[in-house]
Amino acid sequence: MQSLLKDQTAEKHRIAERKPFNMRMFKGELNQQAYLHYLEQQLAIFTALEQHPLPHPSLNRIESISADIQELETAGALRKGELTATTTYKNYLSGLTPSEQLPHIYLHYLAIAYGGQIMKTKVPSKGLFYDFHNFEACILSIRQIQQDSWVNEVNKGYDAIINIFDALEATLLETTKIIEHA
Ligand code: HEM
Fold first, then answer.
1. pLDDT tens string 77-97
2. Site to substitute for ligand 1 among 7, 17, 59, 109, most atoms within 8 A of C-beta
3. Which of 6, 43, 83, 137 has its Cα between 20 and 30 A from that of 106?
């Protein structure tokens, strides 16, 4: 679906998509530990977005992310905690009114609805995060409300997720260094 919103946020989409951590995830190169760290950040974001009713009830992600986290913990992966970049974004989202949060809902739910269907086959878990009941209705509920005037706010959301990808990559490189020197 072509729109001014998509056009004017396309550059940041490209930057986010090409972040090293995201590329690793997309190539199926993340181990369970690194993927768990990613899911911890996603849980913080989606929890901030799910304090108010969503455009469609089947969009809700808290349960599916928590189930994926549980699966990884059962397999022995450990939580590493919320990154500062995530806390900053989470606090920003929590300060928005329900209608001010809508651009961020567009951003995060369409991200997993689209890129996520391939991602599901690449991540080291069942990937319940990417499964939607009523998939078409979920997408439609966002498409029906999206507005071109959301450009700035959506781009702010991309900046936040880009910072989070950078912080995840930094943690991954740090962990690799520690393992190499052990
Ligand atoms: C490997 C990573 C990714 C891939 C392969 C990917 C792929 C895609 C594709 C193919 C579409 C277009 C769907 C269509 O027009 O029919 C799309 C749309 C979208 N993606 Fe991504 N994406 C990725 C990462 C991300 C990330 C990290 C975000 C933000 C958190 C994001 C947010 C969005 C949004 C908001 C749209 C909807 C744009 C619109 O049509 O209005 N994507 N993505």
1. 999 999 999 999 999 999 999
2. 17
3. 83
